[in-house]
Amino acid sequence: MNAVPRRIQRVLAGISLPVYLLLYAPLSVIAIFSFAPSLGHPGPNVAAYGMLLNDPEVLAALRRSLTLAIGSAVLGTMLGTLMGFGLSRFRPAKGGGFWVGTLPSLIIYLPIIMPSLVFGISELIFFNFVHEYTGLLSAGLLTMGIAHVTFQAPYVALVVYARLAGLDPNLFEASQDLYANAVKSFVFLTIPVVRPALIGGFLLAITLSIDDFTISFFTAGPGSVTLPIYIYSAIARKGSSPEINALGSLMIATVIGVALLYYFVTRHRERSNRIPAVA
Amino acid sequence: MGTAAQGEARSRAWRLWITSGPGLFWIVLFLLIPSGVMLGIAFFTNSDFGSPVLPLSLDSFSQVAGYGILGWSGANFTVLLRSLLQAGVATSVTILLAYPLVFFIVTRPANMRPVLLLFAIVPSWTNQVVRTYAWMELLNPFAPVSHVAQVLGIIPPHLGLMPGDFAVLVGLSYNYLPYMVVPLYAAAEKLDWTLVEAGRDLYASGAKLFFNTVFPQTLPGLLSGIILVGIPAFGDYVVPQLLGGDKAMMLGSLIADQFTFSPDWPYGAALTLIMLAFTCIGLIVFRRLTQRLGGGEGAML
């Protein structure tokens, strides 16, 4: 970009490179400390990783985290896709009044805007009351899953909505002219068209689920300790340990691996500068 | 004709509810109603076990204002003020870091930009607990960083850079920096550089050039960024909990305590009401600003 003089470009680089360093410094520190010497293991070693992989508690937490993420993402993507599709296709173009025009948007933005602490505590109280009066929904993976779907669906809806908003409405008219009924047009036109958004939304839903701590923490029960909750209580109990560092490093490595994969997959598919979502 | 149009409208409305209904119903049932219940609890009386009982009262709100059995205390105001201040300062830090970073990225060749942006965002994809824990490792009293600070006399010997307000500020800024980078990048990428050149032709330079040509164009992105950083930072729970300690308590920890360690649900609910009130004020103010500036957000619902 020749609009920015070389001198200023140098200043920008001079500030940005330390910022990049700062972004990765804490993550690298965890990785380095995971190899730190510990009792009975002098010198750099991988003992912490061995301990981790033989710890049934950690493996159970990992299994729960994955079950929760995939299970909630499936339902969250379904509900979210239908919402995004319905609102972009069937809502009157102009206004639609409060009930049809404004209220659905307000409801969809509620989980996104609400501070996660308020979100989590509201659910805690609600599930508590429901359990007290009906005996259903005792705190556990199910209540966590319900809460996760609640914050995943709106994000998926936004992704699908954004995809459909950039689409020619004549396409749908054309499918009607060709005598496709609503279901056929949904299966053969809408689904293929929104497939990238569908896959993107599903991955986003999984990321959101794995990234969340606060909402999970307040909806979890004694038998539903997931990885983030395991780490949090381990820190609270005994501070840092090589094992926690090893677990953290594995989680960071997974995320960076997935990010690189995402980059290389999308780079070949579309050349446009897509802006990845923050989660 | 009229009936046909009406029928058309009715079938549209019916399809709208068939498709969007389940998701909207889910959110209403599992979030709108629960938060309503939670706010209602603020008007009940606290029982010995911390659960809400009748009669209705406003005791919880006088507790929020600082009145207790021991008389008035300003502790809650301090916590609220600290939360607002931390959120404000953390937002400013992210702005100061995000502007150079974003303009560094947009001035690179087009094929390098996505990967540079990705590298700025990837840390935010790791779990918040892990990210915050990483700063505990970096700032604790035995870490080299704290040692350097001790030698330089910034902090007294044997103390670390955590727990405390400084550590919370660092943690919040680190956590939410990508939330500022993304909307700013979206605005900066669409920047009309001919305006900048026109400004330069008129002999504007330096700060004047920036604030008259670049800044107004990135303002919508900046406002979105302030919302995306300020609101979650204000209500954050993990960062002050792990990096703050007792002396750096923020509103989130104060609320959570009322539902965990020393249960007092009505008091906790009243505090939550305060948090939501400030969140709404922030949202409304910035929405008004965005509308006044005519910043369209693209495909918004």
From TrEMBL, chain A:
Q: Where in the cell is it found?
A: Cell membrane
Q: Which SUPFAM superfamilies match?
A: MetI-like
- Report the membrane topology from the UniProt record: Multi-pass membrane protein
Transmembrane helix listed as a keyword:
yes
Gene3D superfamilies, per the entry: MetI-like
Q: Keywords assigned by UniProt?
A: Cell membrane, Membrane, Transmembrane, Transmembrane helix, Transport
Q: PANTHER family attached here?
A: PUTRESCINE TRANSPORT SYSTEM PERMEASE PROTEIN POTI
This protein is called Spermidine/putrescine ABC transporter permease
* Taxonomic source organism: Acidocella aquatica
Q: What is the lineage of its organism?
A: Bacteria, Pseudomonadati, Pseudomonadota, Alphaproteobacteria, Acetobacterales
Automatic annotation (TrEMBL), chain B:
Where in the cell is the protein located?
A: Cell membrane
Q: Which residues form a coiled coil?
A: none
Q: Where is the ABC transmembrane type-1 domain?
A: 80-286
Q: Which Gene3D superfamilies match?
A: MetI-like
PROSITE patterns reported in the protein's UniProt record: ABC_TM1
Entry-linked InterPro entries:
MetI-like, MetI-like_sf
- Which domain of life, per UniProt? Bacteria
Q: How does the UniProt record describe the way this protein sits in the membrane?
A: Multi-pass membrane protein
Q: Which UniProt keywords apply?
A: Cell membrane, Membrane, Transmembrane, Transmembrane helix, Transport
Q: Spell out where the chain crosses the membrane.
A: 24-44, 87-106, 115-136, 166-188, 209-234, 267-286
Protein family (similarity comment): Belongs to the binding-protein-dependent transport system permease family. CysTW subfamily.
Entry protein name: Spermidine/putrescine ABC transporter permease
